[in-house]
Design a protein that fits this description.
Layout lengths: L1 H11 L6 E5 L4 H10 L3 E7 L4 H6 L3 E2 L13 E2 L4 E5 L8 H9 L2 E3 L3 H8 L4 H7 L25 H8 L6 E2 L9 E6 L7 E6 L2 H13 L5 H5 L2 E4 L5 E9 L4 E14 H6 L15 E8 L7 H18 L6 E10 L5 E8 L13 H6 L5 H14 L9
Parallel strand pairs: 1-2, 1-6, 2-5
Antiparallel strand pairs: 3-4, 7-10, 8-9, 8-10, 11-12, 11-14, 12-13, 14-15
Helix pairs in contact: 2-13, 7-11
């Protein structure tokens, strides 16, 4: 069905006015910037109260030179061409909004915010059917980010197992805990976030979860659905890949690591102050990303993981991965050192900072951000009459 939706839109699209569209959060500025670098238009769909970033602060406007003849003066500044303001993000599925996006020749670039905000009101099947505009990427793979097959299709654990990629051991019950584990459950107040906590025993599990329930961070119902996973020790690194159907090649766009509250605060505390926060539960909410390179000797194992993941995705959800995806890993101590994948992202990553690692320049001769790489792929597909190969 998704292929038919894309094909139907392409029959009426003006290919000289293709527009990259995204939800106004997460990585929308990166998509907008990338579109402009490649001569494409862009459009950001915002929710009420969140429009000023796109409609005001980063909107495209003419540049007035600081002085006459200033040689480096750009013709315009900002990167957002157009904004569609809605009362709530979920309204993007309304027919009038879909028709407006189709009229603007939009190719939609899904990000994590698109999934989490719409999932508060819709099932994945409704999202897949209701989005009439073409997706850059495989729209059926979005649900594979989930950690349970109830979302339909293969979840990320199934994909990782099929690919033969090592991931943290799963425990089915707190009674089985015999080492340090990470417990992942839906957050009570922020439904699209997860509440994380560490435990080293069944007693730890019940004591910490009880405290989080009292604080309103967890609910007993959410705890009953929690995933309990071995906690892998080592530095974390997000391997931000890009698979190009046009070139038939796997690329490493860049690598980064996360900044998270309040875990980062704990790491920065001097040992003598730890007693003062002994009763504070550690939190891992996203706060940002930092560019982080890896050893050159780890690149080949990283690419091997990426290639195996691509093959598994093709087998389980054709046509497989299109464009950006990330394998979020811990580098475990050796010898030899080993990559352990603890999470998967099957859309544009949340870190535009990946351009500040050297890997895209090693490939393209200059830094290429993931937003620009998406736009490059769409332009190559348009100019070779292969848009159907990168859209669903």
């Amino acid at each position: 069905m998704s292929t038919k939706l894309a094909a139907r839109a392409l029959t009426v699209y003006d290919r000289s006015r293709l527009t990259l569209g995204s939800i106004g959060s997460h990585s929308a500025l990166e998509v907008a910037y990338g579109a402009r670098t490649q001569g494409l238009r862009n459009l950001v769909v915002t929710a009420k109260g969140r429009e000023r970033t796109y409609a005001r602060y980063f909107a495209v406007r003419p540049t007035t030179p600081l002085r006459t003849g200033w040689p480096s003066s750009p013709r315009s500044r900002g990167c957002v061409d157009a904004v569609v303001e809605l009362e709530a993000f979920a309204e993007i599925l309304h027919d009038d909004v879909q028709q407006r996006l189709l009229a603007e020749n939009v190719i939609f670039v899904p990000n994590r915010s698109f999934e989490v905000y719409l999932r508060q009101q819709c099932e994945y099947e409704a999202i897949e059917r209701g989005m009439l505009v073409p997706f850059f990427g495989n729209r059926y793979l979005l649900k594979a980010e989930e950690r349970d097959a109830d979302a339909g299709g293969a979840d990320q654990y199934v994909l990782l197992a099929r690919a033969g990629i090592r991931h943290p051991r799963r425990f089915d019950s707190p009674r089985e805990i015999d080492r340090l584990v990470m417990v992942k459950a839906p957050h009570a107040r922020v439904t699209f976030e997860r509440a994380f906590f560490l435990a080293a025993s069944e007693r730890d599990f019940h004591e910490t979860s009880g405290r989080l329930i009292d604080e309103g961070v967890l609910t007993p119902e959410a705890l009953a659905t929690a995933r309990i996973e071995e906690y892998a020790l080592g530095p974390s690194v997000n391997l931000n890949f890009f698979y190009s159907p046009i070139l038939g090649e796997l690329e490493l766009c860049g690598t980064d690591t996360r900044r998270q509250t309040n875990a980062e605060g704990f790491r920065n505390l001097p040992p003598g102050a730890l007693h003062a926060v002994s009763g504070v539960a550690m939190r891992w909410e996203e706060a940002g990303h930092i560019a982080a390179t890896i050893l050159e000797s780890m690149l080949e194992p990283a690419f091997e993981m990426g290639e195996r993941f691509l093959e598994a995705a093709r087998e389980l959800q054709p046509p497989g991965v299109i464009g950006p995806f990330a394998l979020q890993c811990v580098i475990a101590a050796g010898p030899p050192k080993e990559l352990i994948c603890y999470d998967v992202s099957l859309r544009i990553p949340g870190s535009p900072g990946t351009r500040y690692t050297p890997y895209s320049a090693y490939r393209w001769g200059r830094d290429v951000s993931v937003g620009e790489r998406i736009a490059m792929e769409i332009v190559m597909a348009r100019d070779t009459d292969r848009l159907a190969d990168v859209l669903t």
